[in-house]
Amino acid sequence: MVHGANGEPSSDDPRLTEPGGPPTDPATELEQRAAEVLLAAEATAAATGRAMVAEARGVRRRMLEDAEQRRRQLVIELERVSGMLDDAIAALGADAAPVDLGDEPNPEALARPAADQATDRLGEQNDGRVGALFARLRSDPEPRRPARAPTPKETPAAASPEPEPEPGPESKPEDPDTVARRRRSAVLDPLVPDVVRASKRLLQDEQNTLLDAVRRARGRPEPGRLLPDLEHQRDAWVELLGPGVDGAYVGGRAAVGKRGRVTSAPPRVMAELVGLIVRPLRERLTLTLESIVADGPYELPAELQRVAGSAIGARFREWRSADLETRVVDVLAAAYARGSYDGTGPATPLRWVPDEPGRCPDCDDNALEPTPKGGVFPTGQTHPPAHPGCRCLVVLAGENRRG
Question: Of 86, 92, 109, 186, which sits with the fewest C-beta atoms within 10 Å of its C-beta?
């Protein structure tokens, strides 16, 4: 301490200028300031780290959503291309005519693949896509030969079959039921390919509409809201099936002698037949969507869309490849049978003709005795079909079995 001349403390002593308490150590003050700076730096770093993590998560989510969007677009494009290929192959099968080799075998024609022969016959009738299919068929390592019986010149002498005897006067006439089935096939077979091709295109449109509804759905998806409106769906199928059903119905009427006046199936018949396709398709899609929802919840909408897109695509592919043509033939066969039934007069005796005798016991029972129009056969129906998948016919009871 500094003292003045009289022994009192001098005012120059620095300790007297610090108010309150003992003097502060400069080292301690520096430590406190350093600690405060360190805490502030740690808080800033933590906030910056959290912001970077959030941004990284956002980028990852956007990348996943973009990838899922591209995947969905690719799936839709693949489905479209698959449908186009199915149409082209079906058109190839419907348009290609067997090659007429004439009476004399042509060794050059026999040595060529069947695809080349069909190409020569079709010429410029096919477009570029069908031509590409022919090119792919020509590259097949095992080309198929035209199916035909060998001519006498091609058959070895040792294996030459004996000429079949001419049918004599005692030959049995052909079974009328077989004649009735063949007559129906002549009506229905030309209708099936066009109806199947158009149905595949409509199914592709319905699949795309359903996938779009799944993408736009918010919250827990409900099958009833995702599926297309039932009335609109029925109207679309009525328009598509109309020409084929009308042709089958009028052909059935002609089979019992009614021609000319009626040119289309009644609306009530059309509505019943459309239900044979629309109803089971909606039931399967409903079960599929309910199963998808039951497997949730899903963390991101993209995950739900991925699962739903895969399941819905698989269901439509199964329907197109395994069920569609069978259902179309069922509808046309039912329209033919209904046309035959409607073409007969009241109380006309009718006979039930099974599509395949011995396959269905109920239909075989229906074939035992004629039934007048308006009455019911043993299975309880007035006319075919008796059950899903039934393709039986009704004919006039005068067409009795003979021989």
Answer: 186
